Amino acid sequence: MAGTLTGRVLGELTFHEASHAIRDTAILCLPLGAIEQHGPHLPLNTDVVIAEALTRRLLDRWGDELDLWQLPTLSIGLSREHDWAAGTLSLSIAGFCGYLRDLAATLVRALPARNLAVINGHGGNRGMLENLLHELHGDFGLNACVLHPFDLAVAGAGEIDVHGGRGETSVMLALAPSLVRADRIVAGGPPDADAARSLIYERGATFAWRTDDPRLGRDGIIGDPSTASAEFGSALLDHMVAAAGGVLRTLRNHRARR
What are the distances in angstroms from CA 225 to CA 9, 17, 44, 167? Predict the structure, then answer.
């Protein structure tokens, strides 16, 4: 019994245990990933691996203090910018939003907890999640936030590192080195750095950029994975976990003041 509860994973509890262990002040942590191309050297489930591993680290570090519980992973998100590549799976916007709304409805039926932290492993999910937070609160009474791991870590300041580059490759080398095809890592950033900045980073306009755009990517990569290392990946993960503590405290305080 004790060994089961210390894992803080909802799916590993019996329904009797869940009814006693999860309180209304608990924070439910939802790993959210994607199945999409990450260049020739990283697996399709890179974002899932990162979201799940980071969630486990958050539970290990903050679980007892902040009463965190891990929900089952949602592995498929919004990945249309990669749909040119074999193996990439993507929900429609309507399907993605409907899935999360259905999840919210069943959470509030099944559990007393009303705090939800989405651990988002895929940047392409971000825009819809930011708008969905309002519906999750207004329609279901959930106090929710989204954690964006690489932004939390303040990774790659000043460099173009969007997809499959130094950051993601380093974190995968730290978490799952056996999944990284090290012999397929190539050097070089975006072919046209100015195009990357104007299409991806421009705050005054939004474009439907794609990872098969020859100005932006090299074989699906936007960034330079050749400088990646497990040491850098471990440092990024440590920064993510440390920064997440403040976010999760803010989430609990936000509910208390509503």
Answer: 33, 44, 16, 8
User: What whole-number distance in Å separates Cα of residue 146 and Cα of residue 8?
Assistant: 20
d(CA 166, CA 174): 12
Q: Which CATH number fits domain 2-249: 1.20.120.1460, 3.30.230.10, 3.40.50.720, 3.40.50.10310?
A: 3.40.50.10310
Phi-psi region of 181 (alpha: psi -120 to 50; beta: other; left: phi over 0): beta
* H-helix or E-strand spanning residue 31: strand 27-32
Q: Where are the alpha helices (DSSP H) in 80-229?
A: 93-110, 126-140, 149-152, 166-175, 193-196
Helices (H), strands (E): how many in the chain? 9, 4
Tens digit of each residue's pLDDT (9 = 90 or more) over 198-228: 999 999 999 999 999 999 999 999 999 999 9
The answer, yes or no, to whether residue 4 has pLDDT greater than 50, is: no
Q: How far apart are the first and last CA of the chain?
A: 35
SS3 84: coil
Please give the angle made by the CA atoms of 94, 97 and 98, to the nearest 5 degrees: 80
Question: What integer pLDDT is reported at residue 1 of this predicted model?
Answer: 37
Cβ atoms 45, 77 nearer than 8 A = no
**Domain range annotation of the chain:** 2-249
